[in-house]
Design a protein that fits this description.
With 244 residues, the protein is an alpha/beta fold. Helix content is 50%, strand content 13%. The chain has a four-stranded parallel β-sheet with strand order 5-4-6-7, sandwiched between helices. A three-stranded parallel β-sheet has the order 2-1-3, with helices on both faces. The longest helix is centred in the first third of the chain and has 19 residues. The protein starts with a strand and ends in a 16-residue tail after the last helix. It comes from Neonectria ditissima.
Length: 244
C-alpha cells in the first residue's frame, strides 16, 4: 500500500472526516485490521484564513508548497489536499513536492457524470463559488454546467462556513439558510448539489434534501484510499509523478 500525504487543518474539522473516511475505505476493501498509511501535516488555519481574506494567495500557496515538500521527505507517495478552496494553488504544490496530487474535483466530477447528472449546483466558500479555478475544471474537463447562488446566497454560505462550521458550530437556523439556497439552485436548473467546501457536510445531510448531494470530502477521501491501494480505476485521477 502506498503512503498518502495529507495537507490538513484547513479546517481540522474536515481533516477528521478525511482520516476517518480514508481508513474506513481501506478496512471496507481489505478487511480485518487493515488501515491506511498516512502522514498528516496540519496547519494552523488562522494563518491560512488571514491570507485568504487578504487575497495573499501566493503567500498561502508558499506555505502549502513547503508543507508538501516535508510530506515527501517524510515518505509520502502522493498529496491529498484536504480542502476545496486551497486547490486554487494545487499546481504549485505538485511542482514543489514533485509528487502526484489527487485533485478533489476529478473524482467528484467522475461520480456526477456516471450518475447521469449534468447541471451542478455549487456551494462553497466565496472563493470557490466566484473564482474560476474550480468551476472551470468542472466545465472544461467534464462538460458540466455550474450554477452558483446569487450574491446574498454566496455571502450567507461563506459566512456560515467560516464563522460556524470551521469552529465546529452547527445551528439549525443555518441549516435552514442552506436549504433555502439549495432550493433556489434547484429552481435555477441544478439537478444535483456539490458540497464544494469540506466543512459543509457537517451541516447538509447527504440524503433527504432538495437535490442529490455529492460530498467532496467523502468522495475525495475514498478516491485517495483507492489510489493508495492500487485500484486501477483511480489511475486517471492524478497527474504523473515529476521525476528528479
Amino acid at each position: 500500500m502506498k503512503t498518502l500525504g495529507l495537507l490538513g487543518g484547513m479546517s481540522w474539522e474536515s481533516t477528521t472526516t478525511y482520516y476517518q473516511e480514508i481508513n474506513r475505505r481501506v478496512r471496507e476493501v481489505k478487511g480485518g485490521l487493515h488501515s491506511a498509511q498516512c502522514i498528516i501535516f496540519s496547519f494552523n488555519f488562522a494563518e491560512i484564513e488571514e491570507l485568504q481574506h487578504a487575497g495573499k494567495w501566493d503567500e498561502a500557496g508558499a506555505l502549502l508548497d513547503n508543507a508538501a515538500r516535508k510530506l515527501r521527505l517524510a515518505g509520502a507517495d502522493a498529496i491529498v489536499l484536504c480542502t476545496n478552496t486551497m486547490h486554487m494553488v494545487s499546481g504549485g504544490i505538485e511542482s514543489a513536492s514533485q509528487l502526484p496530487l489527487i485533485h478533489i474535483v476529478d473524482p467528484t466530477a467522475e461520480r456526477i457524470r456516471s450518475s447521469g447528472f449534468r447541471s451542478v449546483g455549487l456551494l462553497g466558500t466565496r472563493f470557490t463559488m466566484e473564482k474560476d479555478f474550480y468551476k472551470s475544471r468542472l466545465v472544461e474537463k467534464y462538460g458540466l454546467r455550474v450554477i452558483v447562488p446569487d450574491e446574498d446566497g454566496r455571502n450567507a454560505v461563506h459566512s456560515i462556513i467560516y464563522d460556524e462550521l470551521c469552529n465546529g458550530i452547527i445551528r439549525e437556523e443555518s441549516r435552514g439558510v442552506y436549504h433555502k439556497v439549495i432550493k433556489d439552485l434547484k429552481e435555477a436548473g441544478a439537478d444535483c448539489l456539490v458540497l464544494g467546501c469540506t466543512e459543509i457536510g457537517l451541516l447538509v445531510d447527504a440524503v433527504g434534501g432538495e437535490l442529490p448531494v455529492f460530498d467532496t470530502a467523502v468522495i475525495h477521501a475514498i478516491a485517495a484510499a483507492d489510489w493508495a491501494m492500487g485500484r486501477s480505476d483511480t489511475d486517471t485521477l492524478i497527474t504523473p509523478r515529476i521525476e528528479d
